[in-house]
């Protein structure tokens, strides 16, 4: 079952359950999928990699909006964004915890032959592709920077 088919089925369930927040998040994802399909010039289905990018982008937008609303003291809007983020995260791969992320980054650092902070670009290029959807870009960058600044890896 493709992501689009899962979303369609879950939209129907959310409509029956009258779950407005879930329904809004699912419709947002479906809209992004449809836009991505039509950008390619037809009814061509999108790859699972593109689906993951769409979910990651959508999750990042919700996270940033929630942070902004929290700073502004708009807890009502922050709660909505966080609830929609939780729905979106259900369709994403399991996120790596910090320990697992560091282990994977150490493997990448050794594979690309990185020796210091000047090699962050090479490490991030490989890490961004391999860890897509499994960790936030900021977390990857921060952990990679810490590891490259520590010469004892």
TrEMBL record:
Pfam families named among the record's database cross-references: YqeY
- What residue stretch is flagged as signal peptide? none
| Name by which UniProt lists this protein | GatB/YqeY domain-containing protein
| Coiled coil, from the record | none
* SUPFAM superfamilies per the UniProt record, alphabetical: GatB/YqeY motif
């Amino acid at each position: 079952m493709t992501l689009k088919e899962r979303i369609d089925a879950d939209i129907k369930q959310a409509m029956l359950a009258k779950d407005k927040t879930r329904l809004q998040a699912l419709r947002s994802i479906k809209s992004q999928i449809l836009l991505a399909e039509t950008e390619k010039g037809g009814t061509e289905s999108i790859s699972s990699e593109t689906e993951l990018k769409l979910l990651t982008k959508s999750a990042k937008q919700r996270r940033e909006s929630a942070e902004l609303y929290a700073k502004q003291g708009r807890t009502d809007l922050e709660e909505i964004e966080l609830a929609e983020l939780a729905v979106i995260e259900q369709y994403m791969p399991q996120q790596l915890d910090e320990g697992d992320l560091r282990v994977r980054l150490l493997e990448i650092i050794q594979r690309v032959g990185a020796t210091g902070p000047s090699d962050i670009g090479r490490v991030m290029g490989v890490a961004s592709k391999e860890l897509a959807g499994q960790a936030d870009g900021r977390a990857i960058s921060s952990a990679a920077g810490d590891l490259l600044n520590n010469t004892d890896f």
